[in-house]
Structure formats: C-alpha cells, structure tokens
Amino acid sequence: GGLLLRADESATWSSLSVLAVGLAFLMQSAAMLAALNAIAAVIKEREAELLAMPDDEEVLAYTKRQKAAEAAMKEARNWHRPDFPWVVKLLLVLGAVTMILSFELAIGFG
Fold this sequence. Notes:
mainly alpha
C-alpha cells in the first residue's frame, strides 16, 4: 500500500509499486490454492460424513419456490400458448421492426 502512494514520485517507486502489486497477487493466489487444496482434502477424507448430513429444510423450500417461479415465468412467456394475447405479440413484433428500421436509418443516413 505504501509503495502505491509513492508511485508518482519517480520511476523507481513506480517500478517498486508494480512489483509489490504483482507479489501480493502471487501470494494471494498461492493462499487461495492452498485453501482450495485443504478443503478438497477434508471433503475427500470425510465424504461419508458429509453425505450423511441432512439437507437444510429452508434451502429445500427456497429451491422448490424458485423452481415453481421459473416454471410460472416460462409458461407466462410462452409465445405459442393459445391464450397468449395477440396485442402483446403485435407490440413485440412492431417494436422489433422499429428497432431494426431505426438502426438501418442511423447507419444509412448517419
């Protein structure tokens, strides 16, 4: 941090600040990989114990609600549904056509 504050003073400080940031990046990356390795080792050693743990009920309920909401949104956006309003279809097509025309006009006359 201190080297970054002096980076504007001279080329030496600028080079040292770049070196310090690079070294910090390497150290943080090494620490992340070490932590990842330790977590993977624990998962491998205690796999049976982890699989025996019951699922969290709140998470299961949330996941179920999310899937229901996704299914409802998919059904609501289904263009080929017989009861899909024709006015909405018309507005969507008209909007797409006007956007394409405005783009073509901007390119052609811009």
